[in-house]
Amino acid sequence: MRKKKVQVLTLLIAAVTIFTLFIFPCLLMDRPTITYFPENPRIRFVKAETNLNIRPEDKIMRLHVSSETNEANDLMQNFSLLYRNNRLVSILNRWQKNTRQLSSIKELELSSGFFTALSVHQAERHIDQSIYGKEQLSQDFLMVVPSNGSFRAFREPKSTVEANLLSSYTRELDTGRQELLRKAAKRYGFRLSDYRVVPLDALTGESVSRIFPFGEKKSERITGQLWEGIYKNYVRGIQLTQGQRVQALGSTMPLLLIAQDHMLIIIETESHQIVLLRQNFS
Description:
By secondary structure, this protein is an alpha+beta fold. It has helices at 2-29, 160-188, 208-211, 216-235; strands at residues 45-55, 60-84, 87-109, 113-127, 130-147, 150-154, 196-199, 238-241, 244-246, 255-258, 262-268, 274-280. The chain has 3 domains: 1-30; 45-154, Immunoglobulins (Immunoglobulin-like, Sandwich), CATH 2.60.40.10; 160-280, no CATH class. The strands form 3 sheets. Strands 1, 2, 3, 4, 5 and 6 form a 6-stranded antiparallel sheet that branches. The longest helix is centred in the middle third of the chain and has 29 residues, at 160-188. The protein is globular.
């Protein structure tokens, strides 16, 4: 009887491992990936929004992502990463052909913490036998705290208690990020003083040209290629070694280390392994 239980447990572990390392990445691969294409002025977003809200009575958190362009596109995609306390808890990826509007909703079990949702909205159009694209970034954040056996949420603190909660989380986050950077620099042999450090959630449509001060077209290309790399090398599985890949869920929000001609992306996996990716600026 004991031997049979051991065999069943072994099979379950094997099944989970196969799904995590092989099936889950393949499910994502069946969908269009975030791919950078040069822009065309004919493609314009009239709406690109990410919204987090809660239903305390149902213990539900709702992530709603929507976008709309001026004309129909050959392909539209909404792709979102949801973090709780700086760790990835959910991925939302929806695409549709021949449309100018796209809306995506995901509901999760409600829990306390600081939630950040980052989205990239992409429209792709084929014009004169060439492929063009347009990307728009949006985000939302929400602090969820316990309240009388239920939950409440806020974006901006409206009381001393809320301000202290947010301040405490920010200090803890900054300390954790500094420690991660210190360990990454030691492991991979780079000098932090050579880089500007920017967390991924600081990258918005308004801040792109300030974070990448290389001119509008180049900064937009770098941003598009960054999200393409995040999808292919992060969301579809983080490669640790030649034959080892782990899921992105549970990993930290990427930290961008920006130099003049390249950028390093630092991530810590759920099992606390530090991963470094590199993007060269062409």
